[in-house]
Amino acid sequence: MTSATSRQIESDTVLETRPSASSxxxxxxxxxxxxxxxxxAAKAPAPSSTQVLTQTVQRVTNGLSxxxxxxxxxxxxxxxxxxxxxxLGELWKMLGIxxxxxxxxxxxxxxxxxxxxxxxGQIPGPVMVWEQxxxxxxxxxxxxxxxxxxxxxxxxxxxRYLAEGRPEKVKERSFTGKPTYIDQILTSLKTVFFxxxxxxxxxxxxxxxxxxxxxVNAAMNPLIxxxxxxxxxxxxxxxxxxxSAVYVNASDALPKSFLVSAITVTLCSLWPTLINTALxxxxxxxxxxxxxxxxxLNTRDQIFKLVIPSSLPLIFTGLRLSLGVGxxxxxxxEMLAQNPGLGKFVWDEFQNGSSSSLARIMVAVLTxxxxxxxxxxxxxxLQAMFTYSDKR
Length: 392
Known about the structure:
- The structure is a single chain.
- This protein is 75% helix and 4% strand.
- By secondary structure, the chain is mainly alpha-helical.
- It has three domains: 3-33, no CATH class; 52-113; 151-386, MetI-like fold, CATH 1.10.3720.10.
- The strands form two sheets. A two-stranded antiparallel ribbon has the order 1-2. Strands 3-4 form a two-stranded antiparallel sheet.
- β3 and β4 form a beta hairpin.
- The chain starts with a helix and ends in a 6-residue tail after the last helix.
């Protein structure tokens, strides 16, 4: 070994002498090699509080952007002492301009509504719509109070029968009050999620097989192109007839109107997920598929470890589109199937024809729009959680 090599080894390795438990007894000192890289890591300074705070703020702002609250990021950065001019400009762009647009819309709505007269009276403006929304909420609270009083009286009566030794008189009845506006919203949400889940369970597997196999894709493509544009109003009579013939003994937990509406949602909303899944799978880098063959992965491992993770962005895009289509289709389906959701609420108010009907229909329209926006943001958040982007 040359002297240069020896000096190099000595510079790369430092001999640390430390007494071990056995050496303390025997008097022999053990010599342990310690890498210079470990010494450098041990001497590396810990992150400062400023660096930790900066990293924390970055994670918070990324999280807010994911859940659709990115307009709060300039406020956070402003509080952290960043350039006020830049952050105020971002705040104006992300929050100020949308608020101004909303105010302009409300003003135009209020001015235009006063100019239009119908058989039911004047077109309701924002103030009248807000008043009817408050009336619907008050009706919900009053109905919940009646329901609570009903069950309290029933429990008191049953307890008295049991105390008197007459258990045969004990009866349990359900509250049969009219569904409130909140109840109808929850019914619509349950219906659309039921149909959406069924559509997802059908569309994703078929889309994967279409993307992996040109033969399956060629077989499915004509069917997709034929059934994709069919209106829910065309599907609804067919679904109603089939469900009435097959689902004879309907239960209270799963009424026919609920099932008809959910199946109609399924038939209209599965196509975006199917098409985007097939596109995502067919767009996977062929080198990845070749690697799976070299590793001799079986079909199950290839699908779950390679195909699905690689195509998740487009799958989630299809899911977002499907959920939006399903929510839009649901209202028409509930109108005709008489499922007690928002669609039936709109239809009942239209048939009612009272002076407040138009305002209540406008409340339903805005509710449908806001819920649709929240559903899309929820799917976007899930997409950001389970897929990779430049922020994660």
